[in-house]
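WARN  no MSA supplied for this record, continuing single-sequence
INFO  ligand: adenosine-5'-triphosphate
INFO  echoing inputs
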Amino acid sequence: MNPLVELIDVSLSYAGTTALSGFRISVPEGSFAAVVGPSGCGKSTLMKLVTGLLPPTSGAVLVDDKEIDGPLNIVGMAFQNPNLLPWRTTLENVLLPLEVVRPARYEFRQKREEFTARATALLKMVGLENFADHYPWQLSGGMQQRASLCRALIHRPRLLMLDEPFGALDAFTREELWDVLQTIWTEQRFTTILVTHDLREALYLADTVHVMSARPGRIVRSLDTVQFARPRDEKTFIDPRFNEAVLELREEIRNQRSPPDMQSLTRAAE
Ligand SMILES: Nc1ncnc2c1ncn2[C@@H]1O[C@H](COP(=O)(O)OP(=O)(O)OP(=O)(O)O)[C@@H](O)[C@H]1O
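INFO  complex generated
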């Protein structure tokens, strides 16, 4: 499969801080990639580069074989905070990107009914069919995150970028949402890049788990998860190979952490 997203020798520096250096990744169209790494290694920076919100300092960010030169409209995004607009109902929140993302916004007025039907179908897929007219404050955190997933997918993006979308949820709700995401992805096969601290989440959802080094971040390991048959379910968690892979990734990330700053440790001990 051709890569939809490719970063070639990318570096990105903020004033005085090199966040990424020598970063390479290739994400085949229709695949699910997860990116894990130690805190501050540049995962969110990667999201900003791939969505075109930040240009690289050097190297190339290619999407669909073209170097990107601004925000992309083929992307859907979801973050740890669902960021639903409090004055809009669930349905209205899901429809929001169609009102702002080109070219959908030109069609929105003529095809409102069709788009509403699409939003309703998505809400059904995530189990929110009876909450379309509710406001965000009437929804639990998990329900808000389900709505945020629908909003990310309403314009049928070719690329879904997820930055810790389940990070703030309790373990049970989080695992429920993994299955919701797995079901939608299996059906629609949009290319997905998930940034997460949760190694089980990465292994459960992705085709390939990429491990980043400590800052300046680059990919130091890419682990294929093909041995875990899809659809994955609770049996996946008790597969010894799954737990071995979690331990392996944990060890890899531990080795990537920067050595402790001895001066601050000494200061903290005083
Ligand atoms: N706007 C900025 N200006 C200066 N430095 C920044 C800026 N944004 C991020 N950084 C630095 O770049 C590095 C990478 O940040 P980034 O937020 O991408 O990491 P992350 O892996 O997403 O972090 P976390 O795991 O804590 O969510 C960090 O050291 C951070 O302090």
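The mean pLDDT is 91.
INFO  checksum written, moving to next record
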